[in-house]
Amino acid sequence: MGVGSQDAIKQFQAFIDQVEEPLRTTFQNVHQGFVTATLMRFLKARDWDPYKAQKMLVDCLNWRVQNEIDNILSKPIVPADLYRAVRDSQLIGLSGYSREGLPVFAIGVGLSTFDKASVHYYVQSHIQINEYRERIVLPSASEKQGRPITTCIKVLDMTGLKLSALNQIKLLTIISSIDDLNYPEKTNTYYIVNAPYIFSACWKVVKPLLQERTRRKIQVLPGCGRDELLTIMDYSSLPHFCRREGSGSSRHSESGSENCYSLDHPFHQGLYNHIKQQARLREAVEPIKQGSFHVDFPVPPDDEVEIAKTIESELHKFENGNDV
């Protein structure tokens, strides 16, 4: 770390020390005891400009306060059948850990349909997984490793990606914007597997639009990526769709305890039980309102809007050419 970076951290630290309530309290849920690492994440996201990083962090803290993000882990998606429907159509889960101790999140990009609930439920679910990762998963991994674990690995399965993805671009842009603006630099590496031709065509035009630090994080692996991923994690941590060459992915291709998307998987059981427990504690203070937890959607950054338009344009080319 250079002198300029150290000066930026000191300047940022001096600024954050002056932040008052209620921003100070919500910042504790952001840093989880790792203040310097958190400041570095926001600085990296703004190319080490302390003034831009300060604005980004303050905007994030205000978003958290205005939308009661600190309480989102006490807001269950009920009934359980609705939550199961969300899980079956928004495919994401924790498959295990890398050998360095980083959580491995699997995401079924191609087979996620997002068609079983309103947009607000999917956004609520996504933020709950983010907050559970920040407050429970990463602190637990840090304790186990005896050192700070503040980032994760994501394995993106493109099996099933097709033109229907056009219907998901708006929602995915909302989720991506929430992550970029409020959970910056939380992913160490993105591994893309089972990529069909339609992805490869889109990737060629999208890749040049990405910032360099983002491009460096993305690795497109051949096939299901099993052999490459086994260099950084044990077989037991591989997402189920990476476990045998040519197996592809499925919502129910493995039993509930092995398919990390499933509500029956230990990760989702732990998350769901945690939310129910927090809801019971909160219910002793005030009644729990039923229905989705509405969150203000951020305005996507210009670069994300451009990327979304580019993807949409490429998919329309396929649609018009009947290539898929």
Automatic annotation (TrEMBL):
InterPro entries listed in its UniProt record: CRAL-TRIO_dom, CRAL-TRIO_dom_sf, CRAL/TRIO_N_dom, CRAL/TRIO_N_dom_sf
Gene3D superfamilies reported for this sequence: CRAL-TRIO lipid binding domain (3.40.525.10)
Organism whose genome encodes this protein: Glycine max
Superkingdom field: Eukaryota
Domain CRAL-TRIO, chain residue ranges per copy: 79-239
The protein's name in its UniProt record: CRAL-TRIO domain-containing protein
PANTHER family: CRAL-TRIO DOMAIN-CONTAINING PROTEIN, SEC14P-LIKE PHOSPHATIDYLINOSITOL TRANSFER FAMILY PROTEIN
